[in-house]
Specification:
By secondary structure, this protein is an alpha+beta fold. Helix content is 42%, strand content 18%. The chain contains five helices and nine strands. The chain has a seven-stranded mixed sheet with strand order 1-9-6-2-3-4-5. The protein has a two-stranded parallel sheet with strand order 7-8. A hairpin with a 5-residue loop joins strand 4 and strand 5. Helix 3 crosses helix 4. The N and C termini lie far apart (78 Å).
């Protein structure tokens, strides 16, 4: 009886090992296919997109050619200096750029100082609201409420000002003053969520004034 049990146990172990090997082989095949698809569908597209951007972007010094207005948004896409999350600030009534930052929680920088926070090669996209006076009202709200931000937190409550982050703060500035939903969803139905910078970048309520590189 013991020999029967021993043989059965050995058979089960061998069977499990064969399954494990097949699973490993399957994982290798899956990773190889996924990697090939990623290079084909993502990396090559990124390379083409980067090549086009190099032709379209202007040096950051040319940013002075734009007459920035209150409420304009300066967005830096994912990069090492933005911890690969992207970052954005908004121009206040005083011409400074206000941005919620992990080391802040809020800074009011001159444009010159703001740009020193980023690395060479970073991109900057400048947006302006398509709605008349919305930017002015958002800039006024920012200066009146930025001191209410107490902590840098990725909080889902879209109405909370005390716990905030860069894109959510800008979202609130436009939503609370002009009812403009830069996320493109009904704010009344969605009081919870994460407003990532790239969501605002894609907003049809904004127009691009220019793209620049450092």
């Amino acid at each position: 009886m013991k020999n029967v049990i021993r043989r059965a146990s050995t058979h089960i172990v061998q069977w499990l090992n064969s399954l494990r090997k097949k699973k490993i082989k399957g994982s290798i095949i899956y990773l190889a296919l996924a990697g090939a698809l990623h290079r084909l569908l993502v990396e090559r597209r990124r390379e083409r997109s980067a090549s086009r951007r190099l032709q379209q972007d202007r040096p950051i010094a040319d940013l002075n050619d734009i007459k920035l207005e209150p409420g304009d948004i300066v967005y830096t896409p994912s990069s090492e200096s933005t911890y690969y999350a992207g970052h954005m600030g908004i121009i206040g009534l005083d011409g400074k750029i206000y941005h919620v930052h992990p080391y802040g929680p809020v800074f009011a920088d001159s444009m010159e100082w703001y740009l020193t926070r980023f690395y060479a090669g970073d991109r900057f996209i400048v947006f302006r609201s398509r709605m008349n006076m919305a930017g002015l009202r958002a800039a006024e709200w920012v200066q009146e409420h930025y001191q209410q931000v107490k902590l840098y937190r990725l909080q889902t409550n879209l109405r909370s000002i005390e716990r905030n982050y860069c894109s959510k703060f800008i979202y609130q500035a436009y939503q609370f003053t002009s009812g403009l939903d830069l996320w493109g969803r009904k704010f009344k139905r969605m009081n919870m969520g994460y407003i990532y910078p790239f969501r605002i970048e894609r907003s049809s309520a904004l127009e691009v004034l220019g793209t620049y590189y450092k």
